[in-house]
Amino acid sequence: MKIIKIGTRGSPLALVQAKTVSEMLKKAFPGYDTEIVTISTKGDMVLDTPLWKVGGKGLFVDEIEAGLLKGGTEADCDNKTSSDNVSIDIAVHSMKDLPGEIPKGLIIGAVPKRLDPADWLIAIDNNEGGGVANSVESLPKGAVVGTSSLRRGAQLLMKRPDIKIVPMRGNVGTRLEKLKRGECDATILAAAGLIRLGLDDIPHVVLDPDEFIPAVGQGALAIEVGRRFRQEVKIIDHFESMVAVLAERSFVKTLGATCHSAVGGYAKVVDERLTLKGRVLSPDGNEMIEGSKSCEIALEGAAGMSNEQAKKQAKEVGIVLAEELLGKGAGRLLDMVEDG
């Protein structure tokens, strides 16, 4: 029996994501088995500093990608490896954690069907007789919101400049516990993470992704592969999710945005039309440049368009929108860095 070694971070959410992909692959290929390999990343070890101050998205994937690059032969798959010399066949990431540039020899082999891309505002009432906020506008004056995301903070400040943003990192459970302890009045979390963890019944406010633009790739998983299992993972790819993510990633890559930038990008396919909306903000939310682009897109065989042509078209939409925003002065906002 062939064994597919799946590399992942060890957080509760990351393990749920890896197990989900494992079950999808075993269902598609009954003759295969999987082994989940947990790998510690720098991002898991540095929890008291915002990511943009310590190196950004690569902090969550570098060690996993190193293990993926070591894989690629039958011997690698059959041999046991130490924690210092991990070899894996595929990697499962939250798409929003994956940098725009990935190492040579690796590709995004599949994007399973995307879950809700929205952000959720969560406010827990710790005051007897008080009420829980049901919108950003209904947060109390001067409310403290915990988030280490420049994008989330900037969009909140754009709506409510009186709000105080304080850094908050850690896994979903850690952030919710900090909220319960009263370290802040509210926080913002990705809907998909809460859904995957079975926490979707927690009181929350949905922040419309067309209005409160999510992070590029939010709600989607990235199945990263090297030389092996490229054909196998294609069976769990969801075309509409893949092209939407490709448009978003092309947008942020063309912008030259980094973890130091407050940028959101959201694409969706409706009635064979892909629409991408992008937004660049100053960290304080005082300035914002946004725009949208769309194109016809179709499943392979429809409208004479192959899947590869559709992917190319999606990337082009991201490039065109990014260039338009840069032409409007987005580069200046991208270079702004939050004080402190």
Protein model, in words:
The relative contact order is 0.14. Helix 10 packs parallel to helix 11 (307-327). Helix 1 links the parallel strand 1 (2-8) and strand 2. The protein has twelve helices and 13 strands. The chain has 340 residues and is α/β, with parallel strands linked by helices. The N and C termini lie far apart (54 Å). It folds into three domains: 1-112 and 220-237, Periplasmic binding protein-like II (D-Maltodextrin-Binding Protein, domain 2, 3-Layer(aba) Sandwich), CATH 3.40.190.10; 119-207, Periplasmic binding protein-like II (D-Maltodextrin-Binding Protein, domain 2), CATH 3.40.190; 239-340, Double Stranded RNA Binding Domain (2-Layer Sandwich), CATH 3.30.160. The protein is globular, with a radius of gyration of 20 Å. Residues 73-83 have low confidence and may be disordered. A five-stranded mixed beta sheet has the order 2-1-3-10-4, sandwiched between helices. It is 33% helix and 21% strand.
